[in-house]
Amino acid sequence: MENKKDKFIEMFNELNEHLKEVNDWDTSFYSLLHEGRNNDYIIKKYIDELDTVREVRNSIAHNNEYYFLPSSSLYTLLEEILDKVIDSPKISDFIDDNLMVIKEDTSIIKAGNKIDAFLITKNGSREEVLQGIITDWEIPEIYNKLNI
């Protein structure tokens, strides 16, 4: 049982660090949820679940006199959210060969939190030939296809 608890904390920490990186915020998980609820797709979609994950993590980490263990369903949910965030497909997975200023292997989730439209080149340089454009209208469609 201790391993499941440790793995839950490890997954929480990984998610926390990744959300900080994606959003360029160096803050607490609570603040990430509060700030990201309006502009981060994953946080917006899973705000209640992520808040529950936060509360369980805090109970495990800060209340040593009690024994807390995340439920199997919460553990599984955290794994699924983490997989969606960490294994976010790349922009190049959704463009035609004749399309494509961001690098083509940029994470969709990371890119989706930054700007409203993406000018895509092979290496993300303004001097390169434009290979495609993805607008803010297309990002939700991409998320829906990914079931994020």
Poorly predicted regions are none
| Amino-to-carboxy terminus distance | 30 Å
The secondary structure category is mainly alpha
Supply the number of helical segments.
6
pLDDT averaged residue by residue: 76
H/E element sequence: HHHHEHEEH
Which strand order do you get reading across the main beta sheet? 1-2-3
Q: Categorize the overall geometry.
A: elongated
Nearest-angstrom radius of gyration? 18 Å
Count the beta strands.
3
* Helical content (DSSP H or I, runs of 4+): 40-55%
Described by strand count, sense and barrel closure, the largest sheet is: 3 strands, mixed
Which percent range describes the beta-strand content?
Answer: 5-15%
Give an overview in words.
The two termini are 30 Å apart. The mean pLDDT is 76. The longest helix has 22 residues, at 2-23. This protein has 148 residues and is mainly alpha-helical. The chain has helices spanning 2-23, 29-36, 41-62, 72-86, 108-112, 139-146; strands at residues 102-103, 117-121, 132-135. A 3-stranded mixed beta sheet has the order 1-2-3, with no helix packed on it.
Briefly characterize the structure.
By secondary structure, the protein is mainly alpha-helical.
List the helices and strands and how they pair.
Layout lengths: L1 H22 L5 H8 L4 H22 L9 H15 L15 E2 L4 H5 L4 E5 L10 E4 L3 H8 L2
Helix pairs in contact: 1-3, 1-4, 2-3, 3-4
Comma- or semicolon-separated keywords:
mainly alpha, 6 helices, 54% helix, single chain, elongated, 148 residues, 3 strands
